[in-house]
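## retry 2 of 3
previous attempt timed out at serialization; input unchanged, resubmitting
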Amino acid sequence: MNIQLKTQDGSVTKPLAGRVSLVTGSTSGIGLGIARALAAAGSAVVLNGLGIAAEIARTRDQISADCGVKVGYSAADMTRPEAIAEMIAATIGEHGRLDVLVNNAGIQYVAPLDQFPIEKWDAILSINLSSAFHTMRLALPAMRQNKFGRIINIASAHGLVASPFKAAYVAAKHGIVGLTKVAALETAEEGITCNAICPGYVYTPLVEAQIDGQARAHGISREKVIRDVLLAQQPNKRFATVEELGALTVFLASEAAASITGIALPVDGGWTAH
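## retry succeeded, writing output
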C-alpha cells in the first residue's frame, strides 16, 4: 500500500509524515493491516499484541523497510491497566508524542446469555472496552499538549445492532461507540477527534479458517458458507478487506478529517441499513 499526496509543485508527501501511531492488537489481522497503512502514510508505528517473538520482529523489519519509518512493539497485556500505562509512557518517552491511537484489540466468545461464562464476560469487557478507556485517558494529555490527536476505535457492526449469543461482545462494542462520542465531545475544541469504525465481516486468516471449518461441519461449499452463513446479514455479499479499513483509518487520522468526530461509521456492506 503506497499512500502519498502530490503538492502543487509536484513533490510527493505522505499525509501522516512525522506522526506517531499506536495500534493495539496489531500483530495480525485487522490491526496489522491498519498498522501497515499508517506506516505507508508516513507515520512511525508501535505494534501491540500476541505472537511469536521472531515473527513479530520480522513483521517490524518488513514494515520499516517497506515504508521507511520506525516500527516499535509493546507486548502489553491489554487486561492490565498498569501494563497499558507502561506502553503509553514508553511510546511517548521514545517518540516525544503520540498522535494517532487505534484501539483494535479484541476477543470473542459465543454462548446463550444464561449460559455465558462469567470469566469470558469479564475478559471480553476488559479487552474490548476497558482497555480502550485506559489507552484514551492516558494518551489524551500528550495529544492536548501537541494540540493534535486522532483516536480511532475499531468497533463493529455489533456496536450498532445485535446478534444472538454474543452478549459480551455486543455490550462491549456498543460501549465503545458510546465512549467514542463522549471523547469526541470532551475534545471538540482541542484539535483532537475521536471516531469509531464499525466493520461487518472482514477477510482475515481467522475468517478463512472459519470458512473451511463451517464447510466441513455442514457439508456445503465454501461459496455457500460465505454467502448464506457468514455474510447472511451483509447485502453486498463480500468481505471488507484489511486494506479498506487501513485506508479509512489513514483518512480519519489525517488533516482532511479534522471536522469528522464522534461518528460510528459502518463498513458493513449494508448490514446495518436493514
